[in-house]
Sequence to fold (251 residues):
Amino acid sequence: MKGLGALLKKEIMEQLRTYRVVVVGGIFLFFGISTPLLLKFLPQIISLSGQQIPIDIPPPTAAQSLVEYAGTVGQVGVLMAVLMGMGGISNEIQRGTAVMTLSKPVSKAAFANAKLLAMSLTFVVSLLVASLFCFGYTGWLIGVGDLGRFGVLNLLAALFLVFSLAVTMMFSSLFSSSLAAGGVSMAVIIGQAVISSVPVVGDFMPGKLLGWGNAVVQSSGKQYRWALAVALVLTGFCLALTQRSLKKKEM
Fold:
């Protein structure tokens, strides 16, 4: 792939220049810090709200805090992945910046790969930093969790977010409208999440990765290795289709 290194450097600089790293990292960090705080002080918050009905809330556990954080980041992260990726290619084609980039000695495959790698790097680094804060705050306020199991949970969550980015970028290359790309991408991701709840068939859906990660932290539940394999294959398929779509476009 000709020019991948130069394009990747350009895309990373674009992530920094447009403050996408700050936005994604800031939102993830907010939930990384606020989740253990909320669980720890939830009884006091309910008391201050004037709630008269007595509610017996058991003390939170470290596993509960880590799972709650991952679930929230997973949901919010998908939305952010769609918002970030839906105009990644379509907007550049409309503005003509894609033509300027591809007029240089670089390949369209490298153009697509650099975009996905840069966006994935933004999400993975943001997730790593926020997760470390969450683990630290959980240990300080609630109790020490299992760092190894939490690491597996974050790895599976990161893979699911990269899958979501790949899906969105694929539709961004297929549609000229970023809104259309975002809408269809969200529909596909929600659709696979719905199928994930179907017995047997759902075990193959990428959405099961988050459930698998939660089960690892809680030391319960079964593994979803086929869901991992399908997520990796679909991510590669989306990237290949993005490259093919770019090659067919006249720019």
